[in-house]
């Protein structure tokens, strides 16, 4: 059966929080990670975090693991802890639990940005988590923005869009030109981005009024060349809104957007 569904059913039976499917360990994954040189201690921490997330009172259980293993956590461990705490907040944990989650964010984020072998997905997961937990501390966001800017060349479309959404949602204005770095990455690889990710970057730029002509021109070029095929009604609406807000940067791909809207049918637009 589906290990994600099985984990969710087991968690619900215990009264805990369902563990996100992509975090659930599949059979043999520990062996493969050990073969890749991931220390066993870090795998054990990851296992304790996932076990804690499935327990009743998952937030307290996750935080106990953080307090126990914090100094030994890798960037992947810390980003997983942040992700799980944020998922608990999204699922509707108490205000006191959210506050407890926020209290461990500084130490966890330090493990992410300063950890050896930090990966783009760790930084993206941490960004998403801080946004969901409504952590708006300038120092924390500045440190995270600096780490993202330094490694953005290795980010894929989903990771760029996730970070852009997170910082835009917090209406954060981090130092170091983060939005420029994200927009530059998207502009340079726009043809490889899915419509949702490319438009997601445009939405974030418009939300914080960050003008980036190269990104706008790249998005317009991709939309026109593809006829906006594969764009959802939300993609069309968000892209046109972004071009309207950031007017003057590049002409909106109106012919492609109109053709795609017509093919979707006006009933697809809320």
Task: Give structural notes.
This protein has 270 residues and is mainly α. The chain has 2 domains: 1-135, no CATH class; 155-269, no CATH class. Helix content is 68%, strand content 0%. Helix 3 runs antiparallel to helix 4. The longest helix has 17 residues, at 75-91. GO terms for molecular function: RNA binding. InterPro entries: FAST_kinase. One of its GO terms (cellular component) is mitochondrial matrix.
- Domain count, please report it: 2
Task: Report the mean per-residue pLDDT as an integer.
Answer: 85
What is the approximate shape? elongated
Percentage beta strand: under 5%
Chain oligomer state = single chain
Please state the CA-atom Rg, rounded to the nearest Å: 20 Å
Q: Please trace the helix and strand order, writing H or E for each element.
A: HHHHHHHHHHHHHHH
Uncertain parts: 1-27
How many β-strands, per DSSP?
0
| Protein structure class | mainly alpha
What is the rounded distance between the termini?
A: 36 Å
Query: Main β-sheet: number of strands, strand sense, barrel status?
Result: none
Helix content: 55-70%
**What's the helix count?**
15
